[in-house]
Structure formats: C-alpha cells, structure tokens
C-alpha cells in the first residue's frame, strides 16, 4: 500500500525478534531488496498500559527507534515520517499519491505536514470467533473483554474499513496526529510532534 501511494524506501525497525525469533519480519523485508532497510531492534520495553495499573505505559523502545531512524537515515532522505505497521496515510483532494503532495509542499516551502487520524473499526464479518475473557490483569477492568483476531486470509485493510464518518475531510480527529517532515529541518522528532527544528534553535536576535 505505501509503495502504491509513493513512498520509495522503508526503514523497518523490528522488535518482534525481541520476543520470539520465529516472529521476525526479516523474511518479509528480504522480499523487497533495495526498498526496505531492515533494522533488528532488540528492546522489549514497549507497552501501552494505562497509568492506574502496575507497569504503566512506557514506549521507550518506540521512542528510541524513532530517534535512531532520524539520526541514522535522515541525512540520506528528503522527507521522512514514522508510522506503525497498522497505520495508513490516505492522500486526499487532488492528490492520489504522496509524491504529488510533497512536490506541492516543496514549492510552497512547507517543511512539516500533520495528518489527522481516526481509528477505523473492524467489520464484524472479518473478526474471528469471540470468546469472553474474565480476568482483570488481561482486561484491566472488572468487565469481560475478548481477544480480537483477524483470520489469516483477511488483510488489515479489508477488515478495518468501517469508519464512523463517511469519506472526505473528517469533522473531528484524534489528538495524536502523525507527521511527514523535511529531514534537514526537523532535528528532533517525538512521535507526534516536531520537538526541535532548525528555526526553533535560533535565538531571539537571529
């Protein structure tokens, strides 16, 4: 999908091997020589637990991987962005690819672009059999929960194509937007924000 919309190279930071070598994404990366740079990332500390439980959310593995990618590969690219494997950018309006959008931004001297985000809902027809789980440590609640599984013969885009809002510009978005930015302009990026840029490094007189 990302190749179709115009991205020409991918830096794959894979921490799945930190848990189990059998789950490594390297065999998949090897299918795309010259297009995917594979980086084994052994750090295990990356969870998303709420703050009211033991071992609250701490994504230091993700944060460090993002910083590593920008520092190591930023000098070799013009535009860069960091996305999870289940996140998809959708060019809109007159743009059907990221290529034409970024060319337009270059002409405007725009160096950072933020994308609004919204979680897509899975379609019930593509969800595996639901078995209730009643365990506080698993559900983080006294209410029952379940493990959502997508059948192996169903793609992520096929299953998660149920939006709360119709296609087009969203009337509301989640606060955690994602960015694509000029690598020579943003000197420190933190997940959703360009924390330090070439401009912010200037003092008042400059």
How does the SSE layout of this entry go?
Blueprint lengths: L9 E5 L11 H4 L6 E5 L19 H14 L5 E3 L16 H11 L3 E6 L18 H4 L16 H4 L14 E9 L3 E5 L2 E5 L9
Parallel strand pairs: 1-2
Antiparallel strand pairs: 3-5, 4-5, 6-7
What distinguishing features does this structure have?
single chain; alpha+beta; two-stranded parallel sheet; 5 helices; 18% helix; transmembrane helix; transferase; membrane; glycosyltransferase activity; transmembrane
Structural summary, described in words:
With 206 residues, this protein is of the alpha+beta class. It contains five helices and seven strands, in the order βαβαβαβααβββ. It has helices spanning 26-29, 60-73, 98-108, 136-139, 156-159, and strands at 10-14, 36-40, 79-81, 112-117, 174-182, 186-190, 193-197. The strands form three sheets. A three-stranded antiparallel sheet has the order 3-5-4, with no helix packed on it. A two-stranded parallel ribbon has the order 1-2. Strands 6-7 form a two-stranded antiparallel ribbon. It is globular and about 60 Å long. The N and C termini lie far apart (43 Å). The model has no long low-confidence stretch (mean pLDDT 82).
- Number of separate domains: 2
Rg is 19 Å
Tell me the number of strands.
7
Helix proportion of residues, in percent? 10-25%
Shape: globular
Distance between the termini: 43 Å
SSE-based structural type: alpha+beta
């Amino acid at each position: 999908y990302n190749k179709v919309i115009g991205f020409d190279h991918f830096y794959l930071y894979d921490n799945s091997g930190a848990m189990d070598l059998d789950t490594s994404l390297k065999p998949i990366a090897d299918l795309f020589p010259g297009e995917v740079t594979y980086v084994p990332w052994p750090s295990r500390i990356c969870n998303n637990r709420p703050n009211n439980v033991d071992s609250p959310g701490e994504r230091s593995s993700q944060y460090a991987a993002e910083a590593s990618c920008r520092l190591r590969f930023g000098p070799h690219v013009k535009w860069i962005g960091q996305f999870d494997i289940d996140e998809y950018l959708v060019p809109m309006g007159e743009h059907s690819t990221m290529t034409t959008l970024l060319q337009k931004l270059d002409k405007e001297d725009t160096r950072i672009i933020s994308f609004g985000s919204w979680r897509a809902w899975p379609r019930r027809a593509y969800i595996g059999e639901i078995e209730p789980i009643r365990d506080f440590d698993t559900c983080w609640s006294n209410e029952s929960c379940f493990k959502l599984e997508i059948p192996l013969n169903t793609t992520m885009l096929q299953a998660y194509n149920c939006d709360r809002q119709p296609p087009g510009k969203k009337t509301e978005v989640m606060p955690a937007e994602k960015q694509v930015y000029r690598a020579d302009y943003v000197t420190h990026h933190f997940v959703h924000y360009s924390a330090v840029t070439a401009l912010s490094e200037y003092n008042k007189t400059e």
